[in-house]
Amino acid sequence: MKKIILGLITSLLFIGCGSDKIDMTKIEAKLVVGKSLEALALNDQFEKPQTIKADTKIVIFAFSKDVAHTCNDYFVTQAPTYLADNNTQFVADVSAAPSIIRNMFILPGLKDFNHTVLLLDDETAAAPYRKDVDIEKIVIVYVTNKEITKIKTITTVEELKEVI
Q1: Domain harbouring 95, CATH code
Q2: Which pTM was predicted?
Q3: Which residues are registered as beta bridge partners of 139?
Q4: SS (H, E, C) the chain
Q5: What is the mean pLDDT of each run of 10 residues along the chain (164 residues)?
Q6: Structural domain includes residue 62
Q7: Residue 99: CB partners within 8 Å, gap ≥ 6?
Q8: Number of domains composing the chain
Q9: Residue 124 falls within a domain, yes or no?
């Protein structure tokens, strides 16, 4: 009986440790010239639902911690309305962080910012935006009427200043 229980517990342990890794080969990339960002609806750092505004010309995506810090470090030196005044929106992908880290440290820290940060906080929702882009760089998406017209990547604050 002990062996059966031990075997059952071991089996459940291995099943519980199974990978939920997303198969990126089956996902269609969403950051592609000609595609629309109309359906991009995310919560901001205050859990308020947001969409891409009609007058938005640039959407900045940060898919890694270092890239997000680079962007936020620059944005905090600007007026709180800097992004909105420049028809720009900022999206940070926090989906890769474990939920306990995200809830205890990342989200409370983001609430200190005066600029709006749209959050990709679910791996499944973030995957199509991460596909085929360099997630270690700042991804600049130019849009007209919510349709992607150009995509480029940058790495420095100086380049970010030029873009905006």
Answers
A1: 3.40.30.10
A2: 0.83
A3: 61, 153
A4: CHHHHHHHHHHHHHHHCCCCCCCHHHCCCCCCCCCECCCCEEEECCCCEEECCCCCCEEEEECCHHHHHHHHHHHCCCCCCHHHHCCEEEEEECCCCCHHHHHHHHHHHHCCCCCCCEEECCHHHHHHHHCCCCCCCEEEEEEECCEEEEEEEECCHHHHHHHC
A5: 48 44 74 94 94 95 96 95 96 92 89 94 94 96 97 96 94
A6: yes
A7: none
A8: 1
A9: yes
